[in-house]
Amino acid sequence: THNLPPGLEYLNQLDQIIIHQQVELLEAILGTETSSKYEIKNHLGQRVYFAVEENGCFDRKLCSPIRSFTIRIADNAGREVIRVIRPLRCNSCWFPCFLQELEVQSPPGTIAGYVVQNWDPFLPKFTIQNQSKEDVLKIIGPYATCGCFEDVDFEVKALNEMTTIGKISKYWSGFVNNVFTNTANFGIQVPVDLDVRIKAVMIGACFLIDLMFFENSLDGL
Predict the structure, then answer these.
(1) First to last CA, the chain
(2) Could you tell me the residue ranges of all domains in the chain?
(3) Which residues contact 197 (CB under 8 A, 6 or more apart)?
(4) How confident is the model at residue 96 (pLDDT cuts 50, 70, 90)?
(5) Is 175 helix (H, G, I), strand (E, B) or coil?
(6) Positive or negative CA dihedral for 84, 90, 92, 97?
(7) pTM for the complete prediction?
(8) pLDDT for 185-208, tens place per residue?
(9) Beta strands in 60-184 (DSSP E)
């Protein structure tokens, strides 16, 4: 564990990660967009990290689901351990040369890996890459991300796309909560022995999936 990026030691023990968006009172009452804040927890509900999205009001209002952002993830001591960077890019299958790509750093300034959107006319598809941009895993979502009162699963697969090793799930948490606060609740399930850098990249993938498919939806309704 002495070779792990500082702050990621705890991920070495986890095979399940919960991401819960914090509800801002002003946003809940007036519908005014504020910077997103998240708690990242273990399967027991204990907070492991805290994440804050940084971007401008212009980006949030005019570019909402495709906006650029930097998400800073800190441990419980307040030390930034992961940085997720998303540039402003296209969100349409009609522009396959300029699809989504997200960079994850851990520690900040050191590349841990990438999330790259793959072109597909029907299914949401992404590739998880390591720091050398070598393909490691695939993420394949369902044809319809509207869960109709059910969880929505994005399967984590081996590169051959035949073997499923985990999933990223959007949890449906109820009509009132979703419609009036639009909060995000996600779960990541991966093998416990997966490289902690790739686990950090999976957290970044979760944020990207949230913005691309659930930011302006009724979250499964």
Answers:
(1) 43
(2) 14-217
(3) 5, 8, 106, 112, 113, 130, 131
(4) low
(5) helix
(6) negative
(7) 0.83
(8) 899 999 999 999 999 999 999 999
(9) 69-75, 80-86, 101-105, 111-118, 125-130, 135-140, 152-157, 164-170
